[in-house]
Amino acid sequence: MSIFTKKTLIGSFLVVASAASFASSDLFDSLDVDKSGSISSSEASVHSVLSEMFATLDENADGELSYDEFAKAGLE
Q1: Among residues 53, 50, 76, 37, which one has the least CA distance to residue 1?
Q2: CATH of 3-75, one of 1.10.4200.10, 3.40.50.620, 3.40.109.10, 1.10.238.10
């Protein structure tokens, strides 16, 4: 994924998050349906943009998006 595409996707996700009036921790918590402290690809699938970005954001490729990985995307 190109840097431009990644930044565009992140920007789009930020707009969606702002429009929904979520603080980042609230957004993360709302996506972490099972309250495991991470977002699985299944949990991320409810948001098309996050789902598309998931593999890029999952830096350690463990199939889970930690809050730190989420925050590094500028979503905090």
Answers
A1: 53
A2: 1.10.238.10
